[in-house]
Amino acid sequence: MSDEERHPDDVQQHLREVQELLSRQKLVEDLVFRQDMPRHDLVEDLVHRQHIAELQNRLDELHPADIAYILEALPLEDRLFLWNLVKAERDGEILLEVSDAVRESLIETMDPEELKAAAESLDADELADLAPDLPPEVIQDVFQSLDTEGREQLRAAMSYPEDTVGSLMDFDMVTVREDVTLEVVLRYLRRFEELPDHTDKLFVVDREDHLQGILTLEQLLINDPEKQVGDVMRTETVISFEPDDDADDAAQAFERYDLVSAPVIDSEKRVIGRLTVADVVDYIREESEQEILSNAGLREEEDIFASVWDSVKNRWAWLAINMVTAIVASRVIGAFEDSIEKLVALAALMPIVAGIGGNSGNQTITMIVRAIAMGQVEQSAMKRLIRKEMGVALINGVMWGGFLGAMAWWLYGSWQLGLVMTSAMTLNLLLAASAGVLIPMIRSRLGRDPALGGSVMITGLTDSGGFFIFLGLATIFLL
Amino acid sequence: MSDEERHPDDVQQHLREVQELLSRQKLVEDLVFRQDMPRHDLVEDLVHRQHIAELQNRLDELHPADIAYILEALPLEDRLFLWNLVKAERDGEILLEVSDAVRESLIETMDPEELKAAAESLDADELADLAPDLPPEVIQDVFQSLDTEGREQLRAAMSYPEDTVGSLMDFDMVTVREDVTLEVVLRYLRRFEELPDHTDKLFVVDREDHLQGILTLEQLLINDPEKQVGDVMRTETVISFEPDDDADDAAQAFERYDLVSAPVIDSEKRVIGRLTVADVVDYIREESEQEILSNAGLREEEDIFASVWDSVKNRWAWLAINMVTAIVASRVIGAFEDSIEKLVALAALMPIVAGIGGNSGNQTITMIVRAIAMGQVEQSAMKRLIRKEMGVALINGVMWGGFLGAMAWWLYGSWQLGLVMTSAMTLNLLLAASAGVLIPMIRSRLGRDPALGGSVMITGLTDSGGFFIFLGLATIFLL
Question: A253: domain CATH number?
């Protein structure tokens, strides 16, 4: 099997091969267009076609996820060239795998018929994922082409808000009855062409689809086939979800209990779908990506080959907010211009107070947000946490503030200035610590996402607050 | 099954119950200690014991991951009280589930005998995960108690560096030969008490353990039992890893190909272990946590109930670095004190230039780091990316810089000041864009982690650079 074995680095290898083929392809095109020798046209056309055929062959062999990966890594022009070479029936699965930004760039180039064909190759839950990016008339057409069950599933899948279990679940599953023997189950499974992906357990249901228990493939395989399903199925500690459950909670449960799949049930305990670890892994990755991006002020994942204008739009909102907080801070300084004119050292020292306050506040808020996300902070712990963070801020303030105060004294020869520096640092760190605990705690109590925009708020606060505290103290005590 | 059903919110419920039991427990203790009525001692002692028994019963029913969760959410004192109630044979699995910081706090209270007992209940790969936190003499003792195979596995597991496949793999797996029928495999499996966790495929090997192919449980179940393993096993596109492979690549492969388990082979294609999606999910979660924490300047995940002093240590390094860059920026301002004295408006405007530059640089660097991590940026794309980021910076500079220049003009009545503001903004955004592309690209070319410390470097650069550019331009053109 040595030749066919796949290795994690292979997708990089695939990418390089495709790039190689593409660049040879371009070389030929350049020749065709540039050279004015009609006799050679035919030959070059042949070479051209041969390269395209080679590329197409390579693509046909690749896993849809690998093609998605390659499409993401190519500049727009090459990406669309390659996209046209992909077999129409594979379009759907590939569109599911690429990132939102790249998906848009691909869908833009497809006509309604192609989109319809691509969409029809998908399951209801996959279709629901793709639907927001498709033109309404395409969805309408696809919907018409489904059978009643398919329509109902699609309607259900599209009805659940993002970040719920319902939006992640699929409808593929194998159910069995509890009053049959394992032998019967084994024979039943042999009638399948294939099992749904990630089938590690069968759902045991009654006639009305009410969940009775779980028969893992393990139990099915290690037990005597004469035994009844009801005797070996698990009925205790069965982990199931409801479609309205928070996807975050489900992801944590998958992680905590090492699940591969779990049933999704409605309020009457009827099995209506299934959640698999593949969906959960994708969700975890997307969520953490989203958090890292939004921390840096990016609205969404950016196609690195996006146009300059698309990038500007993606980064616009954050820069605008940032500018507002910067202008506020600037006006705080403006209010103390007289003081700065009298003692210009203040201008050089004030960014230190603001900057370190911002960093320290970000440390606190990050820690609190993570603890809240893990469900580990009861509101009752707030006082204790504030006390602790105040303690940390006090130590840092005295230690770093003391050092910076000494530096200011040494630089500007005024121990009073040093003392103001130390006091301002300490006060701003205390402000940062209390805001770092309070902002996410209050947001979470109000039912908002504690993470969102916390970093902007706290940096805005410690900037303006730091300037105000430092310049205010200096004005009172030094001038 | 209604009563035994488990729901993702249940762990929160468990936490509240344990907290309730703990607080009742404390109430009783308070009575015992405070009241001076010897007659009542006996009664209170009984109540006391009854509560402890109740707590112990609750704990015995819980999944080790749930106990870990509860331990994490409790203040140190309660945590250690509860830890003593946990049955000794469960200590090992629970220690594996808690975070590093909490694990340390638990291990500190255990004596060598307890640690040895906890360690001996674990598999070699789990032991290797725990080993760095255990005292050397405990590891030595445990090592002595293992059989030859166990010793070899432990030695192997401990020999692989963190972030490699070897450090994540386990040694539990089921292998079969290709020249037997599925019926034989089914009978073979029935002799197992249980299958290894996450067994979705059996590894087909020859006499020397060389990997020949993969028999999925699906193929085993849907095919006629008379067929030979060799006829239904998959030999193409078998995804396998080597122990030295990068864990990141493996995690991406698991995500991309929706794997549940995969064989780990040595250089001669002998199967030596197995990688499962549970390990990969834990790895993905830890990595993204680590990235979010280090972005905020936290060395590692912090036990939110850690002592003030532990927290200070965890946040120390970043604040020190931040202070160095702040002092450098302050000295840049110090060099222009004469200019600020003459035109104090500069002091109020300069933080805007520095701040927005820093934010914009962070957007660029975050995007580039993510693209590099996904392997989507060839070094050859550098020029193209720099050109694009420069374009974005130019548009933002002219747009936001223009707005801020107009504001400066309006506030201070000097169009020259406005022009300097706009130019300085644009130049600092261009500096931020080029540094945002170059820093991670160069780090990655040098084989370093492109993410690490990028944010600190770029903020330091745009702060000092922004002050220098703005104050420098002002000094040249306005004074």
Answer: 3.10.580.10
Residues with Cβ within 8 Å of B401's Cβ and at least 6 positions away in sequence, in order, are B421, B422, B423, B424, B425, B426, B429
Contact indicator for A106, A305 with CB cutoff of 8 Å: no
Full domain range(s) for residue A444: 308-478
User: Are the beta carbons of A360 and A393 closer than 8 angstroms?
Assistant: yes
Task: Please tell me whether residues B58 and B192 are part of one structural domain.
Answer: no
CB contact under 8 A, A329 and B213: no
pTM score of the predicted model: 0.82
| Residue type (1 letter), B262 | A
Calpha distance A163→A330 (Å, rounded): 39
Give the containing element (helix H, strand E) for B182: helix B182-189
H helices of A179-307, where? Answer: 182-189, 217-222, 229-232, 247-257, 277-295
| Same domain assignment for residues A250 and A328 | no
Boundary (domain end) residue, out of B163, B193, B212: B163
Number of domains in chain B: 3
Confidence category of residue B85, pLDDT binned at 50, 70, 90: confident
Residues B89 and B185 in one domain: no
**Nearest-CA neighbor of A119 among A101, A102, A95, A148?**
A95
* pLDDT for the residue A355: 92
Mean pLDDT value of segment A54-77:
85
CB contacts, 8 Å: A464 with chain B: none
Residue A189, Ramachandran bin (φ over 0: left; ψ between -120 and 50: alpha; else beta): alpha
Asked if B455 and B321 touch (Cβ cutoff 8 Å), the reply is no
ipTM beyond cut 0.85: no
> Of B254, B277, B300, at which residue does a domain stop?
B277
- Does the distance separating the beta carbons of B288 and A292 come in below 8 Å? yes
Residues of B in contact with A375 (CB under 8 A): 11-12, 15, 69, 73
**CA-based nearest residue in chain A for residue B13:** A375
Task: Give the closest residue to B114 by CA, choosing from B154, B82, B76, B142.
Answer: B142
Q: What confidence tens digit (pLDDT) does each residue in B30-73 have?
A: 554 444 444 455 556 666 677 788 888 888 888 888 888 888 88
Nearest-angstrom CA–CA distance, B97 and B68: 6
Q: Round to whole Å and give the CA distance between B10 and A428.
A: 40
Answer whether A237 sits within 8 Å of B12, measured CB to CB.
no
Q: Indicate if A184 and A267 belong to the same structural domain.
A: yes
User: Does B75 contact A384 at a Cβ distance shorter than 8 Å?
Assistant: yes
**CATH number, residue A339:** 1.10.357.20
Asked whether residue A324 falls in the same domain as residue A350, the answer is yes
Range in A370-384, B115-129, B316-330 with the lowest mean pLDDT = A370-384
Specify whether B356 is located in the same domain as B451: yes
Please report whether residue B474 resides in a domain.
Answer: yes
Which residue in A194, A261, A277, A475 has the most chain B C-beta atoms within 10 A of its own C-beta, making it the best mutation to test that interface?
A: A277
Number of Cβ within 10 Å of residue B129's Cβ equals: 18
User: Do B128 and B197 reside in the same domain of the chain?
Assistant: no
B47: CATH: 1.25.60.10
Q: State how far the Cα of B362 lies from the Cα of A437, in Å rounded to an integer.
A: 24
- A435 and A357 in contact (C-beta within 8 Å)? no
pLDDT band per the 50, 70, 90 thresholds, residue A33: very low
Cα of A156 to nearest chain B Cα, Å: 22
Burial degree of B429 (CB within 10 A; 0-12, 13-18, 19+): buried
Chain A partners within 8 Å of B344 (Cβ) = 337, 340-341, 347
Asked whether residue B168 is domain-assigned, the answer is no
Q: Are B14 and B156 part of one and the same domain?
A: yes
CA B396/CA B154 separation, integer angstroms: 56
Which stretch of B95-104, B137-146, B248-257, B374-383 has the lowest confidence by average pLDDT? B374-383
